[in-house]
Specification:
The chain has 113 residues and is an all-alpha fold. It has one domain: Helix Hairpins (Orthogonal Bundle), CATH 1.10.287.3610. The protein has four helices and no strands. It is globular.
Length: 113
């Protein structure tokens, strides 16, 4: 029963992120376009698998970033260097993930995978 409830809590979280976070919608739409493109471009199975995994990782990182921002904002809306640090680190994590996607796409397009 707990797993059933947890599944619906997870769907609720994705619903909040979709509704409230433009960045989450953008990462979802990027994956919806990019993953089929990888198949159409004839990338190797390993290349496609890596692209799918990193696109999913980017979605996970964006959800975690959204959670950090919500928790920080819930704690206080006052300006705080610790709040800025938390939010900026979450954003940096997503930047690294998206940078990895760019590199992975470049490797796939160059034919090395």
């Amino acid at each position: 029963m707990r797993v059933f409830k947890a599944f619906f809590f997870s769907l609720s979280g994705m619903g909040f992120a979709w509704r409230d976070e433009a960045a989450f919608r953008e990462v979802v739409l990027l994956a919806i376009v990019a993953i089929p493109a990888a198949f159409l471009l004839g990338f190797s199975p390993v290349g496609i698998a890596l692209l799918v995994l990193v696109h999913l990782l980017s979605l996970v990182v964006e959800l975690l970033n959204t959670a950090i921002e919500a928790a920080v904002d819930h704690t206080s809306l006052a300006h705080s260097m610790l709040a800025k640090k938390a939010k900026d680190c979450g954003s940096a994590a997503q930047l690294i993930t998206l940078g990895g996607l760019v590199v992975l796409w470049g490797v796939n397009l160059s034919g090395y995978l």
